[in-house]
Structure formats: C-alpha cells, structure tokens
Amino acid sequence: MRRLLRGLFIVWTVLRYGLDELVLASFERPALRLLTRLVSIGRDLRAPRGERLRLALESLGPIFVKFGQVLSTRRDLLPADLADQLARLQDRVPPFPSEQAVAMIEKSFGRRIDQIFASFEREPVASASIAQVHFATLPGGREVAVKVLRPGMLKVIEKDLALMHMMAGWVERLSADGKRLKPREVVAEFDTYLHDELDMLREASNAAQLRRNMQGMNLVLIPEMIWDFCTPEVLVMQRMKGVPINQVQRLREAGVDIKKLARDGVTIFFTQVFRDGFFHADMHPGNIQVSLEPETFGRYISLDFGIVGTLTEVDKEYLAQNFTAFFRRDYKRVAELHLESGWVPPNTRIDALEAAIRSVCEPYFDRPLKEISLGMVLMRLFQTSRRFHVEIQPQLVLLQKTLLNIEGLGRDLDPDLDLWSTAKPFLEKWMVEQVGPAKLWAQLKAEAPMYAKLLPALPRLLHQYLARPAPGAVRGLDALLAEQRRTNRLLQGLAYGAIGFVFGLLVMVLLEMGAHG
C-alpha cells in the first residue's frame, strides 16, 4: 500500500510540473500520445522544461534530488538544457533531530555520548540527504567533526530505488528513445553509487587516500580521519576551519590572492587526475573552503569524499594519446584511438568519425585560449559520439563532470582564467612521462623483480631445451647438425638480446643522469 501511495504521489508530481511531455512525448503508442494532450489541458507550463524537472525532483525528496545530481553527470545522454538545470540541484534537506543523531552514535560505539566526547554540539552545522554533521571535542581536547548517517536511510532508499527500477523498465519498453537512453543502466549505476555513499568507512578511506596523495603540495588541506571513532554509520574527522569558496568578497577582504586561488584549483585537479589517477569528484562550492589560519593561509580545504573518481594506467595512457592528438589537431588519430579501444563498433567508418570530431574541436582552436572550455569540448564530444554508438566509460564521464565543476569554479574566481594555458605545461610534462624514456625506465624497474626470478632459472631451462631428445629413436648426423645450427641460432639470439638489453639500460641511465644533471 505504501509503495502504491508513493507511486501515485510521483504520478501526481509528474502531471503537476508537466513532465508528462518529457516522459510520454517519445512513446510510440498513439494512446499514450493522446493522453499527453489530454493531461496538458488547463496547466501553466510556461517555465522551461529543465526548470520544471528540477523543481519536480526537489519536491519528490532527497533520493530523487540525489538521482538528479547523478543524472546531471550523464551529459552524453541528456540535452544540454536538462543537464544544466539538474546540475543546480542542491541537497536542501532539514536536519533530523539531534536525539536521533546521539542515539545513532551511542549505538555505533556502545557507549554514552559523554563517554565518547568531552563535548558534543547538538545543533548540526550541515545537513544533506544522506547525513548531517555536528562539531565535538575528544577527551584529549582535539576538535573534531562528526558525520552521522540519517536514521532509516536504507529502507527509504530501497523503496524509492524499487520504484525507479520499475519506471526505468517502463520507459525502456515503451519509449522510442528507451534503448539509447539506457534508463535501467542509469538507475543501476545510481543504485551502486548510493549504496556506496551510505558506508561512512568507504568515505573515510577515500579521504585518507587523497590526504596521503596530496601531502607535500601545500595547496590543499584534507581532514585526518580518526579511525578509532569511524564506523559504517558514524565518521569522526579532524575539524577544518575555513571560508566557503563562493564567499569571494570575504576572501578578498581577508587578503587571499584570488587569481592564484583559481590557478591552484586547476593544479590540484590535474595532479589528482593525471599523477594519481584518484580524484575528488564532487568539487562543488559546498564541499570546498579556503583556510584563513596563519600557518595555512590561502590553501584549499576539501570536504565530503563520498564520490571519488579513479583512472587506471590504461585510462591515463588513452588520455595521454588523445590529448597529444588533440594538441596536434590529428583528428584521424583520435578516431583511430576510439576504434582501437573498442569504444565504437568495429564497422565504424574512421573518416566519418574523424569528420565529426573535427567539427567539434576545430571551432574551439580558432578562439583565444581563455575562451576555450575543456569541459565543453569533452561534453560536445560525448554528445557527438552518441550517433556513432560510442560506449561512454563511467570513469571518464565522472572526469568530465568534475572538469566542468573546476572550470566553473575557476572562472567564478577569475573570469580571465585561461584553463588551457594553466593546464598545458602540466599535461605536456605528464605526457612526456607517460610515453617518454622516463616511463620506459619506470616500467623496467617495476618489472625487475620478475626478471630477477626468471634469470637464475634461464641456464637450467636452456640446458633442458638443448638436452631433450630429438624426434625418432635414431639421431643421425643430419639431425645432430640441424640441432647444432638450431643451438647456434638460439645462443646468438640470446647474445644479441643481452647486448640490446644492456645497451638499453645504459641509454636509460645516461638519460636519467642527463635529466638530473
């Protein structure tokens, strides 16, 4: 009965905001198209469709808001006006009672709240759809932030996800665009993401990894996790003190170099992506502050690590080759890389894909650098690739979404920010490291333990190969001569290989000495 009532409320919300024209417009059945015209009578639908969609999701509650936020990252599937409005969704969720937060903490640790903390502020400082945050002090006097999962979230999520899966199945079966939009896959992706975000230990481990990666850069502060006080429902971390990054006037008055702050944000992002392959993927203004403390003045403060992106070495190598081809305007090579990676069907015409990529990229290269948006280029590529049935990789969609966030944030701070010129030296250095002598030398060093195990066994394996009996019972002179020639060739090949290997190592050493000399 509850699911039925929830379903009816969703239908009423869809009709109220005129979303039926989005949901039913592409349906193939005439009866559904007639229903679209009937339910539109007498309603005021003058607001843009993207705005109406955003307002509808906000009225449906936090889970649908979160779904809209995730859906906004799939610009390869959505029209630009819908994606832009969904990107504006905020978790405007009232806090839950502090008594429930205290009960959750006491249940997680098996102790009373006054036995865990020296002090605990019952008024939350932040509240979102998944959790809320309280400030507290540990018995030793250390100030901490306590993130507490909303009670009963799993049950609420499971109910709404069941409805989403059901509606996705309807859309896929009835809509003409259903298969292309992949609604069931999108909901399944959201399902996984949401369940991951419910685990506070996962978020704590993400934060610890980012903190370890960014040590020594002196550009960003990431709170330390207090592992003795972390559970799947409660997260206790170092308390960070800063000013939200969207309060630009306040930062200026405090003496922060705003232009440097914009450049530092780009450097942090590209370091996390291209050096570490592990990046904060939810970098909207609500999760970023700036420190005004004397010892860390002007540094970024990152918060909320429920969403992170990862790139494998294969992903990074693919990006390196693509960036190289883009900078050279070698669009044929970009098309070939798509085919080699298996992202497009094997029967795709390279010349047609090359022409489509050229039509996206070429207009941007003819503009001044500061007017070029890397995020927009990537977004246009995803949209163009739709007609070539390109399989968009989830990790690269997350990268594109984060890149758009960084560009928007950087240009809010500095309207003249030239993202390409800021990032290009970093990218060029990284690409040389990926495809140059340093990368080869690093791979050789990484494979050295395996070579160390194989080399001692090589003489024995060679002896076994030479000593094995020839086919047949009798080995005549011809067979012996043939075996001798085979052995000579084998030894000669091994000698040449050893000489080449030693020569290659010598070249690597000389290059390394030259790089540091």
Structural class call reads alpha+beta
- In CATH, the homologous superfamily of the largest domain goes by the name Transferase(Phosphotransferase) domain 1
CATH domain class name of the largest domain? Mainly Alpha
Please report the number of helical segments: 22
CATH-defined architecture of the largest domain:
Orthogonal Bundle
Major beta sheet, specifics? 5 strands, antiparallel
Number of domains: 4
Radius of gyration over all CA atoms, rounded:
29 Å
CATH fold-level assignment of the largest domain: Transferase(Phosphotransferase), domain 1
Uncertain segments: 498-507
Distance between the termini: 76 Å
Rounded mean pLDDT score: 77
Q: Can you tell me about this structure?
A:
The chain is an alpha+beta fold. It has four domains: 2-92 and 154-196, no CATH class; 98-150 and 199-309, Orthogonal Bundle (Transferase(Phosphotransferase), domain 1), CATH 1.10.510.10; 311-435, no CATH class; 438-516, no CATH class. It is 61% helix and 8% strand. It is built from 22 helices and eleven strands. The protein has helices at 2-16, 20-23, 30-39, 49-60, 62-71, 80-86, 98-109, 113-116, 153-174, 178-181, 183-197, 200-214, 248-253, 258-276, 313-327, 331-340, 350-365, 374-385, 394-413, 419-435, 437-467, 477-516; strands at residues 119-120, 126-127, 131-137, 143-149, 220-221, 234-238, 243-244, 278-280, 288-290, 300-302, 308-310. Strands 1, 2, 3, 4 and 6 form a five-stranded antiparallel beta sheet that branches. Strands 5-10-9-7 form a four-stranded mixed beta sheet. Strands 8-11 form a two-stranded antiparallel sheet. Helix 15 crosses helix 20 (419-435) and helix 21 (437-467) runs antiparallel to helix 22. The protein is globular and about 90 Å long. The model is unreliable at 498-507 (pLDDT under 50).
